[in-house]
């Protein structure tokens, strides 16, 4: 094992969309759903048109495929050595994910996703397989107009340049996936991923 | 003589148990018939002579060798003896005389010396029988034991069953009191027979035999005064088996390892005479360290506990070993990790403390207990100062001290002092935390001891009365408050745990009771101290409001802990809740709520809900703080909450409300908190009182509404200020379910008060949202009342009078309609009978007031709900003024005609309000399966088939008839027949299939409407309802999905069609198999057609809300399409799906880039499922 004692983040410490709003959860909120509901007989507030502006645009931007969504997709990939996810081991970090969305007006135009991984130690021999798993995961769940670029973060690994090069070489990636042992290993790592 | 010989011969020759038994019976009757005279008994005994002579005359060689010839003899001999034993079994117990019995004992006893092969089983049986006979004498018992003991080494060679017989014989003999005396008289303290027995049985291994053998040993030890040497021998005999285990056997014998363990444990605990051997032996086993498994350790500990509990005269049997036991056992807790062993160890320590305290009837000298606790405390005192062992030391010392009241009174001060000293100079934050935990659990145990004080020795209560209280008094200021101040100044996440422990401790502290001289309990702390504790807890809860969002760093979990603590405190210290509510009220009133920030609004919401939770989620105890103050009423907190919230309302005055949205939120929170308070209090009643009591106490003969009219308007506020006396509310103990009745009465008053306030108050305050909340409160309150109370109070009338003197039903304002709905929702059908007079309120309302067009949707919903309730809660029946349901018939016909009229009217647009209300009115009757509904069915069909634009609107709204609604739930006392959906489907939807699916050569423009009608009904039904019509339904779905999505009419069908598709896929996927290509093609087309860009630009007049609604509908359709596609690979065979795999994967790949996140998630699931289809 390369790193026998990695630092592990608690699930509550991982970045998530839900965290941005802390709902009331104490025993006093037991009946919130009943007493604070907004039923149909009350004023239909959504009918008022007083705020103006184009809502459909907000709606799209709020829902767009962003860094957090990419993070949610890959942070649940399992580490090949430890019984922890890449998110818990801090191999995948939200600030190291960059999404360039398609140009406005052409929703199916080219978009790119760049993920920089940080291995737990700088001589991690499994950095390539982790990168490969992240790449496979993203290719399986992103639409075809998204180009996926997985790299090892500069300075985080003794051979970061070389590993990054391997990961962006399409032919080498395809060849690696033909190898049954590797493919099996990657499938195992992706078992914990839910969509 | 001849008889007996023949019988013996027959017995020997027979192999059948039943026959043998009958012969033995015959012989027994023969003996009985001659009153067992000498000759007969002699003949009987001599009848086995032919078989006996060979054995008794035979030499040892013959007996031991057992060649072929003699083995036959042995069997025959055994049977012959069996004949005698069988006869004895069947013989009357009173018939044989002592001399005859002596002879027989001699005869059978001799077998144990001479005939080890054939004679043992039968002889043992015979002896057991003799030992129960009337003529049996104790000296015979002694002789039996001596004779049997002569078996010596040959005992081991006997069959298991034979040995079992012998053990049973021994057990019955030594349990016999007379034999006991005779044995002790004959052998004295040396007890030679015991030694013989031990030698005889020492190698037993059969579990069943062992069970009896252990019982024999336990009896010998407990009932016989044997010498120390013999005791030691006996101890060796059973301790050799410890720890006992049982090998798993293929043939179950009905004895478990636990039975054996318990039997050996009984031997250990049978007499204090073995104490000097038992404790050293067990402790030595325990101290073997890692060699002992957890199961064995637990066995040892339980055995020690059994010894401690059962040994008599503890001064000599236990006291000498307590220190030794403690020294061995403490490490099990101090360094132990396994919960079972820790628990078992603590059980032993507790058992010792309780034993040394004495029994319920007699206490032992206090020194015994004191010395023991001192030994424990001395060791733990050192550990309490060591952060590594603080928790364990705390558990140990707490267990011993709080085992009983004497121990507690003796050492509690010393323990708290020691903990406090350590808390003054803690070694680390976790040390503080552990020490606080000890203090908290000490307080908890103390509460339990005080609560159970009457269950023990009368001295216990006396002890508690004289308990010193200084150390407890000092805990708040000296300990908890100091640590709180030190930690709360800079709250960081690691301090939160400590702070939480302090909050829990404060709650426990404030609830401590002391025993007064008269034996009653009162609070330990004075009102002032309790009030201080409440102030501290309130301060945590008020922080959200008093501090700005940047300064308030308190975690919500700390606030939750504080609210639980405060609730616990105010349940015994009742004034605390008044203090808290006054502070909260003052703090809320300080602010201007008209322009509050989101943070402040959240803080307000949390505070008012916590106010409701703290006061109402439990029923306060009626304990007085001190002798002078009077007992608080269990309803006091509820009254306080209600009065406080009523005083606060409205937080935003009418003049500041410009729009009904944000400004009225604070007002809405106040009403919501009132509602939550009612719900909490009802839950508290449900958990406190048995459900039958609640049912019986929701009844009352008095007309409460009449009583209310004599009360002042601000009655609740007066009750709160104790200026109004209400005999019913005072003097009810917390345990009386009468509290529930009073709660119902108060809440009905509150409802009436709110309703009257709405009818006179400024309209801007009472906007629809808040009036709706008030109506919900009314529904909750009225729902809880029994039918009889509802009738007595005339609540059905109040639904329209709205608790005011004048009828407001003539002004159909939305506000009063909302209020009407609230009352009607909670009424029992039986309480509404008076509304249904022909030409009465219900008919007028249903036919005149509901009838209007062009209402905004929310007003329409309110009216429709009233219509639904009124047609649903019609009870009918012979006792009413309208037994045939003519009113309902009238109403249904009226609405049927209205619908039909609409389709011929000049208006060229759909009449949505009319349709919605009409369908709801019908839906109420449909749920009851009212027969008059059938009369309207043709009208419905005609109106949906009409060419008028309203025809298709009617088709779409048909689903309302079977839609699930809260109004039709059992708790709202709705009348719902079990199969009404099946009934409706077969009456309305099923006949429409033939029109909805016209033949290809006969296209029908009305078919789309019929399809819409079917979809609308089916999508509101469970799968089982339409299961029989899957074939036409699937065709209908394909046609619907294939229609262009740009047409708004078609778009409306999509969602129900897709929902049904998913339902069919889940329940009966094979129904789709033959149409799979058409389904997948149309599903793909629907997805593309529902993408936002595919619908073109919004129309010029379309509002933003309308666009948003349309987008939401499109998103829902896309999601449903993908859900259906995702389900296919799991439900259908791969071979059916393979041809579509590639195009679908392409489409799903694109769907993973859907503009809406939720849809993307479903797309990913679908893509993953389809990748597997190659």
TrEMBL record, chain A:
Gene3D superfamilies: 6.10.250.1280, Fe-S cluster assembly (FSCA)
Pfam families per record: FeS_assembly_P
SUPFAM superfamilies: Fe-S cluster assembly (FSCA) domain-like
Alphabetized UniProt keyword annotations: Chromosome partition
MIP18 family-like domain segment(s): 67-148
InterPro entries, per the entry: FSCA_dom_sf (IPR034904), MIP18 (IPR039796), MIP18-like (IPR002744)
Stretches for region Disordered: 1-30
GO terms under biological process: chromosome segregation; protein maturation
Bias (Polar residues): 1-16
Family: Belongs to the MIP18 family.
Name this protein carries in UniProt: MIP18 family-like domain-containing protein
Organism of origin: Schizothecium vesticola
Automatic annotation (TrEMBL), chain B:
Family matches, as InterPro entries: ARM-type_fold, MMS19, MMS19_C, MMS19_N
Domain MMS19 N-terminal as annotated: residue spans: 72-333
GO cellular component: cytosolic [4Fe-4S] assembly targeting complex; nucleus
Transmembrane regions: none
Location(s) in or outside the cell: Nucleus
Domain MMS19 C-terminal, residue spans: 732-1084
GO biological process, alphabetically ordered: DNA repair; iron-sulfur cluster assembly; protein maturation
Alphabetized UniProt keyword annotations: DNA damage, DNA repair, Nucleus, Repeat
Source domain of life: Eukaryota
Record family assignment: Belongs to the MET18/MMS19 family.
Function, as annotated: Key component of the cytosolic iron-sulfur protein assembly (CIA) complex, a multiprotein complex that mediates the incorporation of iron-sulfur cluster into apoproteins specifically involved in DNA metabolism and genomic integrity. In the CIA complex, MMS19 acts as an adapter between early-acting CIA components and a subset of cellular target iron-sulfur proteins.
Name of the protein: MMS19 nucleotide excision repair protein
